[in-house]
Each structure stands twice: as C-alpha cells, then as structure tokens.
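To whoever picks this up:

The nightly regression suite flagged CHY-type domain-containing protein as changed. Nothing in the input moved, so I suspect the structure step. Input below, exactly as stored in the fixture:
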Amino acid sequence: MCKHILNAQVSIRSPCCRQWFDCAQCHADAQTHTLKQAMEMTFACKKCKKCFRKDMNEFDESDEYCPHCDNHFVIEAVEPKARLEVEGEDVRKDARMLKDERVKAKEGFSIWEDEGEASRLG
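Regenerated output under the current build:
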C-alpha cells in the first residue's frame, strides 16, 4: 500500500532493480540508487492482479486502461493531506468527549431553594 498516492491503481516494476513499487517516491524511500528511466514499463493491475507492458513512445488514450480488466489506471493522484484533529479513544469504549444533548442543566438553581436536595449541602 502506497503512503504517497492513496488511489494507486497499478504497481510499477522498476527497470533498475526489478522490484515492484507503487510510485517513484516509494522507490526512493526503499532503495539507495536513483530510479532508472525507461520507455517500456511493466505494470501490475491492483484490480485483476495481472501484469502488462506499455511502450511509452506510443502511449495514447486507449493505453490508460488495463488490457485484462479495463481498469482505468491513469487517474489524478490523491495525496494524503495533513489534518489537525482531536485524538481520542474509540467513542464506543470511552464517550467522555461526547456531549449528551438530552441532559439539560437546571436554569436559575441556587443553594437556597429547597428542591429536596438538602442532603447535598452537608
């Protein structure tokens, strides 16, 4: 699973070390050498798990699809974005961060009013 491109549709076999990567940044993170440029690329579709080759010199619009399952693999990349959120436990386990709208505070309550809660005053 690629952490740089969230919607990667294919894995690419690098021509330099013959290993599979989802993107060029994944290759740079895992290897010490630079990625070799090649005009013939080998892809593995993540939908049907079959491999195919494409010649980049003759790449046209019909080559944007997997030849086995017609999965459109040339799409705009979705990259992860930084977000600032409040971290907490699972709400099903610990619901202290949730506000219960059903419980309403008593309005205008004072300690001098006797509402049967005299035992609380001590």
